[in-house]
Amino acid sequence: MMIIGKKIGLSCAIMMIMSVLSAQSSVCNIMDIPMVYVQGSNFNIGYNANDTVANVQLHWVKVKDFYISPYEVTQALWTAVMGKNPSRYKGDSRPVERVSWYDCQLFIDSLNRLTGMHYRLPTEAEWEFAAREGHFYGQTDYSGSRFVNTVARYKDNSNGATWKVGSRMPNALNIYDMSGNVWEWCSDTYAPYGTEENAASDKNKKTYKVCRGGAYNSVAEDCNVRYRGRQPAKYKHKTLGFRLVLSDE
């Protein structure tokens, strides 16, 4: 992680002081995207037998150290890179939505060319590990709290639309909106845990990608940090956005 540390040391320092202000600003500097360091480890992904939501077989995965954006990608950042805003609920500080998994890849390719960095989508394991605050075992149902209302914009408190990023409490890593606001694309092709990725393609050859976290119109259960969603990679919807991970390769 030394390469990453050298490249974004200044951005991390600025993030510690001004991250909330920068995320909510209408002025977007693509060279100063705040990131949060997450120390990797082995951890147990999936649901416990006593969970009230879908029971998914637990299994251990290894996550390396990584950096993840504390906010969902905003419309200001998307527009700065792509030149136009596809979102239904307009607002510079709101998360971009109505972007497919493929759209995210085009955005990331453009962002990497402009900045010389190596951004990407988080893996599903990275996403869940960050949402669970880097714990080996799940500590809370939602990212930062046992109570969904304190950390998530969801069906009961969103007034039926997205909100500016960071409008609820963060988790212990100072990462916002990993429960609620918009669903977030992950890099992984969807498949049941423990199976091959090619099992994720149905008879019509639609490739499903993982999305996590729930959205502004979701019930609380969908905002659980272990709940797995999926959508076709070409799917675009006003409930679906993403966040970034920074890699050294």
Main structural class = alpha+beta
What is the CATH top level name?
A: Alpha Beta
CATH architecture field: Alpha-Beta Complex
The CATH homologous superfamily: paralog of FGE (formylglycine-generating enzyme)
Shape: globular
Tell me the number of helical segments per DSSP (H or I, 4 or more residues long): 5
This entry's quaternary arrangement is single chain
Overall structural domain count: 1
Average pLDDT over all residues: 84
| Strand ordering within the main sheet | 1-4-10-5
Output the CATH topology: paralog of FGE (formylglycine-generating enzyme)
**Biggest sheet record:** 4 strands, antiparallel
| Gyration radius, rounded | 17 Å
The succession of helices and strands, N to C, reads HEEEEHHEHHEEEEE
Percent range for β-strand residues = 15-25%
**Low-confidence regions:** 1-25, 196-205
How many extended strands? Answer: 10
Helix content: 10-25%
Task: Sum this structure up briefly.
By secondary structure, this protein is of the alpha+beta class. It is 23% helix and 16% strand. 45% of the residues are buried.
Sum up the structure in keywords.
alpha+beta; paralog of FGE (formylglycine-generating enzyme); four-stranded mixed sheet; globular
